Amino acid sequence: MTATPAAALRSHRWWWWVVAIVVVAGAVVGAVAWSVLAPRPAAAPVAASPAVTSTYTPTPSPTPTPTPTPTGFAANTAVYPLDALPQVDVYAVIPALPVDDDPRGAMTGDTVRAVTDRIPVFADPTAEPVAFLPRDYQFDGTTVPVVERQDHWVRVLLTGREAVPSAGNPAQLSGWLRIQDVEFSRADATVEVGLTSRTVDIVHADGTRERVADDFASGTASTPTPVGRTFVMMVRVEPSFGYTRGHPLVYLGVQSPTLDGFGGAAVAVTAFHYHDARSGAISNGCLRLGPEAIDRLAQLPLGTAVYVNP
């Protein structure tokens, strides 16, 4: 049987679809095969990361600041009745207070004065007070030099005596004061007396020396000038003392080592003063100077340290 043209045409179209499908399938298989078999391009080398040097420095833990250990005697804030205690002044004889135990020792350069009308004075900071120091007194002696300073206490030189010479030790008196009871000032000079060299110098805070006397009169063998450290107690012009010729007397905080009293008084205070006779060992213990020297010494503030050396 011969096919009709329509059938032949349908047969012919089917054939071309078969051929197209085969061609496409071959292309896909080839592409897949090429993709699988083709060599991959070499990967670019990865650059190494540069080494990093750390600049971090750890902060060390701070060292705790130690709490300072208090120096000296413990604080004492007790309130004491003072009415029954003796007053420290030039006339006082107070056996409970000690004499200075280091008469050639250095001082701190400070002076102190009571901040109230009167303050307790201690022989021993661990015990009860044995006297009181007034803020003001007609013969001064209330501004005193510090010979030892602690956190809560100062040891000072004082006027008065532990005993009169005929009954005990009349040397330079000392005692303890609470820092809470005093106000401080700074001394800018000291006085040095040489009994052998016969010189008097003012030594300033920077170490420079001001010579104020190359000769003077001092005590005799039986009424010697006391040696050691003391201080300017009072500066006073006394018109009734004609031998001073109107120049001031510079009284010290120490008294005669041999005289219980002098001139009818119950005290024998050592002093710098003017006198016409002012050379050699001729006095009752005082230091006799010329007019320029005594006037210069009178300018020093109360409490100024004085060293009398042999």
Describe this structure in words.
- The chain is 13% helix and 29% strand.
- It has 310 residues and is of the alpha+beta class.
- Among the domains are: 110-186, no CATH class; 189-309, L,D-transpeptidase catalytic domain-like.
- The chain has an 8-stranded mixed beta sheet, with helices on one face. Strands 6-5-4-1-7 form a 5-stranded antiparallel beta sheet, with no helix packed on it. A two-stranded antiparallel ribbon has the order 2-3.
Strand order of the largest sheet: 10-9-8-17-12-13-14-16
Largest sheet: 8 strands, mixed
The CATH class of the domain at 189-309, by name, is: Mainly Beta
Q: How many beta-strand segments?
A: 17
Strand content bin: 25-35%
Give me the Rg, rounded: 51 Å
- What's the end-to-end separation, in Å? 170 Å
Helix segment count?
Answer: 2
Low-confidence stretches: 1-49
> What do we call the CATH topology of the domain at 189-309?
L,D-transpeptidase catalytic domain-like
What is the mean pLDDT? 85
